[in-house]
Design brief:
- The complex is a heterotrimer.
- Chain A is of the alpha/beta class.
- Chain A has helices at residues 9-19, 34-43, 45-48, 59-71, 82-97, 124-128, 146-163, 173-177, 193-200, 224-244, 264-279, 297-304, 320-328, 347-359; strands spanning 3-8, 24-27, 52-55, 76-80, 102-108, 139-141, 166-172, 179-184, 216-217, 248-251, 258-262, 284-289, 291-293, 309-313, 333-337.
- Chain A folds into 2 domains: 3-184, Rossmann fold (3-Layer(aba) Sandwich); 249-359, Rossmann fold, CATH 3.40.50.
- Chain A is built from 14 helices and 15 strands.
- In chain A, α11 crosses α14 (347-359).
- Chain B has one helix at 57-61, and strands at 2-10, 30-36, 42-46, 67-75.
- Chain C has one domain (28-256): Rossmann fold (3-Layer(aba) Sandwich).
- Chain C is 38% helix and 20% strand.
- Chain C contains 11 helices and 11 strands.
- In chain C, β10 and β11 (255-256) form a beta hairpin.
- In chain C, α2 crosses α9 and α5 (103-109) packs across α6 (111-120).
- Chain C is globular.
- Classes of the chains: A alpha/beta, B mainly beta, C alpha/beta.
- Chain A binds chain C through residues 23-24, 26, 52, 54, 56-58, 60-62, 64-72, 74, 76, 90-91, 94, 98, 205-210, 214-220, and chain C through 50-54, 56, 63-64, 66, 70-77, 80, 83-92, 95, 112-113, 116.
- β9 of chain A pairs parallel with β3 of chain C, so a sheet runs across the interface.
- The structure holds thiamine diphosphate (TPP) and iron/sulfur cluster (3 copies).
- One iron/sulfur cluster is lined by residues 6, 8, 24-25, 27, 29-30, 52-58, 69 of chain B.
């Protein structure tokens, strides 16, 4: 068993990054995730593992530093929160276009605009539908605990390098700020130059020896036919992700007549709702998507057959509900409930919404 | 007396006929040809080859790197 | 003497470096970008540093630099090259890392990235091609456009009260403690090319000493944007650009050069 600690989500993700053997972190302070870079600075990771940590002059710079380190085949991590993540979008589009791996975390706060520093899940569309320009997808992981904040670093890098695509950990201010018990993995060594050459030497811009072709990192192709071909290639990676990377968790669904779909903090709250509902004799279960993209369409569609109705619970005005509807078709009632703008719904509110919008409605 | 004799070779198809090299030549060796290359550019050639001293000035300022320069020392007997 | 007797391997004095590919340059005839590319690659070649070099070229006419420079390269978003180079250098400090940026890129959209990379004293080399205009997008006004100069977005000439003043970004970054060697050159004559090449060599060699940013500005022509024949554009550059952007060292060994 790994080391047990009581930590904030933001600290756990930072500590996990050090232990993962990450080569660099670039970021810019923003609430509610500044603890990530604060923790890293405090830990002197350059002494612990040789990891580079740098506070950039802006999120524009931070994401492009990520782009630079990713271009040379390094493991690079960055985090921000909603307004900062908006500034990341240009860079994320370039990362996806140039097929660069990295892990990013968005500790979402309420918006739009400067919004609020309180938790929210309103950046769902931004993460899973694009966010930046062009046809691309971010593999999006939604942690529902401090443990998953830590665990998704390792998983994230595994997926990011498997597909050479950025991975987004879509968390929120509640999980970033709350303290829980977390089991930390043992320290992994950082990749050596030799290992990077072996693992990423076919594409990373690590310096051209005389007798190998140039490794060029670019998303540009002025020849539209070639650009379309490149896009076909990107799309085929996304189809493969949809086949191989769907992750989700079921809770009390065996006998359920009603289903709540919720991720991250909302899923934690929904578990309590289910407990309360079952005390009243309402048979309700939970599907918690762990990957938001690729969305667990098939398991949801199958599960929907036994349900009388589905409630999508999100701390937003209703974003994931669109993916739910696309998964289950028109024969089943699907409604949304969620507080937003920084307000966290209570289990009772969710139960009330279930009774009114789904059972009674 | 020893005199240097130079010569240049122009990669005709890569020359863009920009003339930037022409004022750089100290001995007025080079000019643009009346003919054009495959891209439609009048290309550079040695109009006055005997005057070339192989100084490489033309090659050094050529943005497209199309000039290769050679030079020999020849003995001239008067 | 017959040309055939001169054109022999043993008589070779100058040929294009192998660190430039055989791809035909996408630049307009007579554009200084090509010469700047070539002399940078010549120095990398002469120093035997092909495998140690990683280049970053952002958006601008030189966005395709990776087609021409025979090294591993990274294409960056418009203005972001100094940040990208920071990400590379911080994780591969043993490599020679450079950016190659236009004036719109470096002094407009990328001003923050430029100033902060310079202020942090990143151990990178910045090659800055100042042609006083946005070449790639068709000749719009750049921050470096001269007073009164006509461009497609200042069709009646740059009007200082409404359009702002030309930005001497090189003088500005030379003030920062993070820059170590800052110099300005041109590539329009053989003598200028030779001088510029020496400066490039110095900038590259100094990077090994980890003393901060080395910065080589090359004042260049954009004959297409300026709407002039190449030779004429070089003359115009000497007459108009050089007085505003004077040639020579601005900062050497971390000390500002006193101007007489
Ligand atoms: C975010 C963004 N904005 C605008 C552009 C369009 N654009 C491409 S190059 C360029 C200006 C380039 O000028 P400069 O940096 O001076 O380089 P030059 O082409 O003159 O060599 C602009 C505005 C872009 N590619 N990306
Ligand atoms: S400078 Fe080069 S491209 Fe231009 S005319 Fe001379 S040889 Fe041709
Ligand atoms: S090598 Fe010198 S002399 Fe010969 S053509 Fe070129 S510039 Fe003229
Ligand atoms: S547009 Fe200007 S800068 Fe761009 S290649 Fe043409 S001459 Fe050079």
């Amino acid at each position: 068993m790994g080391e047990l600690k009581l930590m904030k989500g933001n600290e756990a993700i930072a500590e996990a990054a050090i232990r993962e053997g990450v080569d660099a972190y670039f970021g810019y302070p923003i609430t509610p995730q500044s603890e990530v870079i604060e923790y890293l600075m405090m830990e002197r990771p350059e002494e612990r593992t040789g990891m580079a940590v740098l506070q950039a002059e802006s999120e524009l710079a931070a994401i492009n530093m990520v782009y630079g380190a990713a271009s040379v085949g390094k493991k690079v991590f960055s985090s921000s929160s909603s307004p900062g993540m908006s500034l990341y979008q240009e860079g994320i589009s370039y990362l996806a276009g140039a097929e660069l791996p990295c892990v990013l975390a968005n500790i979402v706060r309420g918006g739009p605009g400067l919004g609020t520093i309180q938790p929210s899940q309103a950046d769902y569309f931004q993460s899973v539908k694009g966010g930046g320009h062009g046809d691309y997808k971010l593999l999006t992981l939604a942690p529902a605990s401090v443990q998953e904040m830590a665990d998704f670093i390792e998983l994230g890098f595994e997926i990011a390098f498997k597909y050479r695509n950025p991975v987004m950990i879509l968390s929120d201010g509640m999980i970033g700020q709350m303290m829980e018990k977390v089991e930390l993995k043992d320290q992994k060594p950082r990749w050596t130059a030799e290992e990077i050459k072996e693992l990423n030497g076919t594409w990373a811009a690590i310096g051209k020896p005389e007798h190998r072709e140039r490794n060029i990192i670019t998303s540009l192709d002025l020849d539209s036919a070639k650009q379309e071909k490149h896009n076909h290639h990107l799309q085929s990676k996304y189809r493969q992700m949809e086949e191989e990377e769907v992750r989700y968790e079921l809770f009390d669904t065996e006998d359920a007549e009603y289903l709540i779909v919720a991720y991250g903090s909302s899923a934690r709250i929904a578990q309590k709702t289910i407990f309360l509902a079952r005390q009243k004799g309402i048979k309700v279960g939970l599907l918690r998507p762990i990957t938001l993209y690729p969305f667990p369409k098939k398991p949801l569609a199958e599960l929907a057959r036994q349900m009388k109705g589905i409630l999508s619970v999100e701390m937003s005005a209703g974003q994931m509900i669109e993916d739910i509807k696309l998964s289950v078709g028109c024969d089943i009632k699907v409604e949304h409930f969620g507080r937003y703008g920084g307000i966290i719904h209570s289990p009772d509110e969710v139960l009330e919404a279930l009774e009114q919008k789904i059972i009674g409605g | 007396m020893a005199k240097v004799q130079g010569a240049i070779v122009v990669d005709v198809e890569r020359c863009k006929g920009c003339e930037v090299c022409i004022p750089a030549c100290p001995t007025d060796v080079i000019e643009l040809a009346k003919e054009v290359n495959g891209k439609g550019y009048h290309y550079l050639y040695m109009a006055n080859p005997d005057a070339c001293i192989g100084c490489a000035n033309c090659a050094i300022v050529c943005p497209d790197g199309v000039i290769t320069v050679y030079k020999v020392k020849k003995i001239v007997k008067i | 003497m017959d040309i055939k007797d001169i054109v022999k391997e043993e008589n070779l004095v100058y040929t294009k470096t192998k660190l430039m590919t055989d791809n035909i340059l996408s630049y307009c005839p007579g554009c200084g970008h090509g010469t700047a590319h070539r002399i940078i690659m010549e120095v990398v070649d002469e120093l035997g540093m092909q495998e140690d070099t990683i280049g970053v070229a952002p958006v601008g006419c030189s966005v395709l630099a990776y087609e021409f420079m025979n090294i591993d390269m990274i294409q960056a978003a418009h203005g972001r090259a100094p940040a990208v180079a920071t990400g590379v250098k911080r994780t591969m400090p043993e490599k020679f890392v450079f950016t190659y940026q236009g004036d719109g890129d470096l002094a407009a959209i990328g001003t923050a990235e430029t100033i902060h990379a310079c202020n942090r004293g990143e151990n990178i080399t910045i090659f800055f091609i100042n042609n006083g205009i946005y070449g790639m997008t068709g000749g719009q006004m750049a921050p470096t456009t001269l007073p009164g100069m006509r461009t497609s977005t200042s069709p009646y000439g740059r009007d200082l009260p409404s359009m702002g003043n030309p930005l001497k970004i090189t003088e500005l970054i030379a003030q920062l403690p993070g820059t170590y060697f800052v110099t300005r050159h041109a590539v329009h004559t053989p003598a200028a090319v030779r001088k510029a090449k020496r400066a490039i060599r110095k900038a590259i060699e100094l990077q090994k000493e980890n003393k901060g940013v080395t910065f080589v500005e090359i004042v260049s022509n954009c004959n297409s944007g300026w709407k002039m024949a190449p030779v004429k554009s070089n003359e115009w550059m000497v007459e108009n650009m050089f007085p505003y952007y004077p040639m020579g060292d601005i900062k050497v060994d971390g000390e500002l050069v006193e101007k007489k």
